[in-house]
Amino acid sequence: STKAMSSFVDSYKFETLAVSSPKTNVLHIEFNRPEKMNTMTAGMWKEMVECFNKASMDENVRSIVLSGRGKLYTAGLDLVEAASSLAPSGNDVAREAFRMYKFIGLAQESCSAIEKCMKPVITAVHNGCLGGGMDVISACDIRLCDKDAYFSVKEVDVGLAADMGSLQRLPKILGNDSLIRDLCFTGRKMKSDEAKSCGLVSTVYEDKEKMMEGAFELAELIATKSPVAIQSIKVSLNYGRNHSVNSGLEHIRSWNAAMLQTEDIMKSAQALMMKKTPADVKYSKL
Ligand SMILES: CC/C=C\C=C\CC(=O)SCCNC(=O)CCNC(=O)[C@H](O)C(C)(C)COP(=O)(O)OP(=O)(O)OC[C@H]1O[C@@H](n2cnc3c(N)ncnc32)[C@H](O)[C@@H]1OP(=O)(O)O
């Protein structure tokens, strides 16, 4: 019911993220620091971890759209906040290194929580996606953008190597090592047409409004499918990315030994035989 749907999303309360549910079983998460170019702070990373972990276990959520409010998707790390957290303190080197180790771990977890989230995450990029934004989108399942979007692995211009996942995940997404090194060594802006042709994004839309319509339509379609099938697909694709074909086959074999016993298969098969679609089937919560 509408009441049940609105009360479920009401429990997602954050300072740096705006959360809504524009369609049944679809969660919309927006970076919500428009006056700060959606720059990333330790506070935002903590909230991203909390939000994606919660959505992962939330039976009301079957797919997620991640986008940014305001002028651009995100300008990456908040350089003002970072100036104090990264400033040399003069303290014992080992203790300082452990403090940084924890700080970087939190930043990494903000992206890993997206990858580990059991629900597919579609991200919709408008205008700029810089630095930490590239780490974020690399951890998402599906990437969309508008015509004005550009992408920059900007860290090199700030004097550091990206450490939240771009260098580890981009090579799994783009089958072009030369291009990845070009982007990472130069920090250059890659425009939407190149992002499409190299496979970073799957669709480019005319403007942000059309992109969000497309993102919600896609999320809604995914949300109508069997949640057992969808979550199993994500788990298996993620596993396969870091393992051999044989290991991946063994993994899905064991996984599906349980999942093939789902009632969803019988419900889906009956619907198909009656010329219906998954959207006509009511799958139980998962
Ligand atoms: C453990 C470490 C983990 C993660 C590390 C991540 C590394 C990175 O993310 S590196 C990338 C860092 N980001 C940048 O270098 C972007 C710098 N900004 C820009 O290039 C531009 O500002 C812009 C985003 C392209 C927008 O340009 P424009 O539309 O012309 O607006 P501006 O006038 O330049 O900016 C408006 C306003 O925003 C402030 N601002 C912009 N970016 C940042 C930022 N990254 N951190 C803090 N503040 C930022 C800018 O200073 C302006 O502020 P005013 O107060 O309005 O002057």
Automatic annotation (TrEMBL):
GO CC annotations, alphabetized: mitochondrion; peroxisome
One Pfam family this sequence matches: ECH_1
Cellular localisation: Peroxisome
GO biological process, one term: fatty acid beta-oxidation
GO MF: delta(3,5)-delta(2,4)-dienoyl-CoA isomerase activity
Biological function: Isomerization of 3-trans,5-cis-dienoyl-CoA to 2-trans,4-trans-dienoyl-CoA.
Membership in a protein family: Belongs to the enoyl-CoA hydratase/isomerase family.
Designated name of the protein: Delta(3,5)-Delta(2,4)-dienoyl-CoA isomerase, mitochondrial
Species this chain originates from: Ciona intestinalis
